């Protein structure tokens, strides 16, 4: 599990990439194609991913495999 999970259950992009063992460029490619987990964009431009959204997204990947 990612170490950066905050008290609101949010992951940073770095945490997500580390957990999935992917590069940022892979994540942005998936996002551009609509294949990434749901993200929140903060006012400063940073992205956050809810743990629940990541878990739900991973479950859909299991079903598709």
Architecture overview:
There is one protein chain. The protein is of the alpha+beta class and 65 residues long. The chain has helices at 13-20, 24-32, 51-64, and strands spanning 10-12, 40-41, 47-50. It is built from 3 helices and 3 strands; from the N terminus they run E-H-H-E-E-H. It has a 3-stranded antiparallel β-sheet with strand order 1-3-2. A hairpin with a 5-residue loop joins strand 2 (40-41) and strand 3.
Descriptive keywords:
3 helices, globular, 65 residues, single chain, 3-stranded antiparallel β-sheet, alpha+beta
What's the structural blueprint in terms of helices and strands?
Elements: E1 10-12, H1 13-20, H2 24-32, E2 40-41, E3 47-50, H3 51-64
Largest sheet: 3 strands, antiparallel
Percentage beta strand: 5-15%
Order of helices and strands: EHHEEH
Kindly state the number of beta strands.
Answer: 3
Calculate the mean pLDDT score and round it: 90
Shape: globular
Major β-sheet strand ordering: 1-3-2
Give the distance, in angstroms, between the N- and C-terminal Cα atoms: 22 Å
- Overall structural class, as computed from helix and strand content, comes to alpha+beta
Q: Roughly what percent helix?
A: 40-55%
Radius of gyration: 11 Å
Count of separate DSSP helical elements: 3
């Amino acid at each position: 599990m990612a170490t950066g999970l905050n008290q609101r259950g949010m992951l940073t992009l770095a945490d997500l990439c580390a957990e999935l063992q992917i590069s940022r460029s892979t994540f942005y490619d998936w996002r551009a194609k609509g294949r990434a987990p749901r993200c929140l964009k903060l006012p400063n431009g940073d992205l956050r991913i809810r743990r629940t959204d990541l878990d739900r997204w991973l479950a859909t990947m299991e079903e598709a495999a």
